[in-house]
Design goal:
Blueprint: E1 5-6, E2 9-10, H1 13-26, E3 32-37, H2 42-54, E4 60-65
Parallel strand pairs: 3-4
Antiparallel strand pairs: 1-2
């Protein structure tokens, strides 16, 4: 549905990007892990990465939750 969460709390994308940019400036080793549900729209994930990069965040990790057995 395009919702974005920080930990377990839903958050506005622009607020997330702003917070991540501030943390990245404070701590150069800061990284952002983006985890998407298996049915997530890849375009939305890429747009989030682009917004984060535009805000100066340079360290990323990507993960997916496709369900099933662990």
């Amino acid at each position: 549905d395009g919702s974005v969460y920080l930990d377990e709390d839903q958050i506005d994308v622009d607020l997330l990007v702003s917070d991540a940019a501030m943390e990245s400036k404070r701590d150069a080793s800061c990284s952002v892990l983006i985890r998407a549900a298996g049915e997530a729209n890849s375009t939305l994930v890429i747009e989030l990465v682009d917004k984060l990069k535009g805000a100066g965040v340079t360290r990323f990790g990507l993960a997916t939750d496709i369900g099933g057995k662990k």
